[in-house]
Amino acid sequence: MRTLLLALLLACSGLAQAAIHTQEIPYTAADGTRLIGYHAWDDALAGPRPGVIVVHEWWGLNDYAKRRARDLAALGYSALAIDMYGDGKNTQHPADAQAFMQAATADAGAARARFNAGLDLLKAQPQTDPARVAAIGYCFGGKVVLDMARQSVPLAAVVSFHGALATTTPATPGSVKARVLVEHGAADSFVSPQQVADFKSEMDKAGADYRFVALPGAKHGFSNPDADAHKGHGLDIGYQKAADEQSWADMQALLKEVF
User: Fold this and answer.
1) What is the pLDDT of residues 150-189, one digit of tens each?
2) CA of 136: how far to CAs of 115, 129, 199, in Å?
């Protein structure tokens, strides 16, 4: 009885916690590809709030990308995990993931169109302030958000978690309008020291406002607790709790600054 009375008092005082709401939303890219977005928001907040795009790892739009959208919603953002492969497909096999990723990045224009379709979808949601939008990405998604920054897509900030740094569309002076944060595993064997040096040189020459964080001992996939499950495929990846928590805190600090 006391529990019921307490719940009623909290509800009447407006202190009851609202659940995070989620919705799958189909949408279409300019090339006709059918995509599926996963939108998350907290309805305890009134009115529009900043929006954050989440771009999945090379595995596709899986539960991890969706969980990160819910995490962002809990922080007070309108978050959309977008679909870069089509039909929300995902896999747990590296060969399939590689094929999906290569197909999605074969045409830089098509990749940008798919990202922009998701961006437009997030901006159209009533919970989103379309003037305040950022993007984060993991692994393949990290490369995607960095490329969008290089191509002057209107974003307040982009954050790459263990993302690829090499690109076929390098930044040019003045092209990077977004604040850039790279959270990189210092023990990531997928990214060479030369690629790190080249990225920093590229950003310096472009005059970008960027921060590069090398997380000690962290391997590729350091933010995803499921990374350890994929070691059986011979992948040099692994979860690191300290790196996960530090990189998430760094992201939160940047989003507070830009919004």
Assistant:
1) 999 999 999 999 999 999 999 999 999 999 999 999 999 9
2) 12, 17, 18
Please report, for residues 76, 160, 183, the alpha-carbon distance to residue 258 in angstroms, rounded to integers and kept in the order given: 14, 16, 17
Helices in 155-213 by DSSP H: which ranges? 193-206
Nearest-5° Cα angle at 199, 195 to 204: 150
The pTM for the full model equals: 0.92
Does residue 117 come out as left (phi exceeding 0), alpha (psi in the -120 to 50 range) or beta? Answer: alpha
Question: Could you tell me where the DSSP H helices lie in the chain?
Answer: 2-13, 63-74, 94-105, 108-124, 140-150, 193-206, 241-258
**Could you tell me the strand order of the sheet in which 20-28 lies?**
20-28, 34-42, 78-82, 49-55, 128-138, 157-161, 179-185, 210-215
